[in-house]
Recover the amino acids of this structure.
């Protein structure tokens, strides 16, 4: 019998989320595309920018978990002139 995971989506950040996103990007993009440390640094810079100006009234975060393990992540960050 195959166990079907229990999925949940949360809309708030927890400690470790941003580093987990960077790690997953680094791992997957290295394995599938051969991207190196420069890509990981790019992802980290983007996550730091997001968190540095995070405003829950203007920005959003959705963390998808399967049985408590992150399997998906989406963030939407506001920009000047109503851009995202």
């Amino acid at each position: 019998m195959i166990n079907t995971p229990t999925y949940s989506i949360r809309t708030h950040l927890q400690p470790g989320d941003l580093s987990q996103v960077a790690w997953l990007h680094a791992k997957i993009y290295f394995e599938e595309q051969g991207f190196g440390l420069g890509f990981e640094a790019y992802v980290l810079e983007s996550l730091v920018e997001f968190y540095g100006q995070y405003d829950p009234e203007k920005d959003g975060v959705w963390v998808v978990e399967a049985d408590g393990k992150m399997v998906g992540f989406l963030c939407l960050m506001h920009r000047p002139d109503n851009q995202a």
Q: What stands out?
A: Residues 28 and 34 are 9 Å apart (CA to CA). The chain is about 40% helix and 25% strand. The first helix runs from residue 17 to 33. The first strand starts at residue 7 and ends at 10.
